[in-house]
Task: structure prediction
Amino acid sequence: MATDKELADFLENVERRAFKQAVYAVRKDEAALDIVQDAMIKLAEKYGDKEVAELPPLFQRILQNTIHDYFRREKVRNTWVSLFSSIGHDQEKQEDYDPMEHYQPEPGTMAAESGADKVERARTLSAIDEEVQKLPARQREAFLMRYWQDLDVAETAAAMGCSEGSVKTHCSRATHTLAQALRAKGITL
Result:
């Protein structure tokens, strides 16, 4: 079980990486700060009694879910704002006015993405996940810690209980294997 100090140290250590990840996802500093804060609070409240080694993957899952929740709220908020802002302008002139016919999502948001783009993104993410799962355990572990959790080589080596050179080797092999498998499926990143 993690002590209060261990939990505080973990949160302090992960804060900058989590913020960078959230900013990259939502592209708004204020929203990213809220997301990271919410994720940290959820981790402390619900999983503060877990072992220190269990905290990084739990926090990543909580952070990702909080980012997804943000996008869901934004989609709903944008839909209602658009609907209410258009009601009344043309409605007096047209009895058959349908606000959804005039709804224009904000460019760059998930709502503005075409159906084909959403399907392609989902297909790509599914293929990447499938190929990551096929990696040998140590390669997968090193790859996820380095590129998903954004740990540096020394932190990854300490977490895996191996040398920094081994981490670099595992990551190199994993990226080459993933690139080759994804190219074979017609996916280039």
User: Anything to note?
Assistant: DSSP finds eight helices and no strands in the chain. Helices lie at 4-26, 29-47, 55-86, 99-102, 115-134, 137-148, 153-160, 164-184. The chain has a mean pLDDT of 84. The radius of gyration is 21 Å.
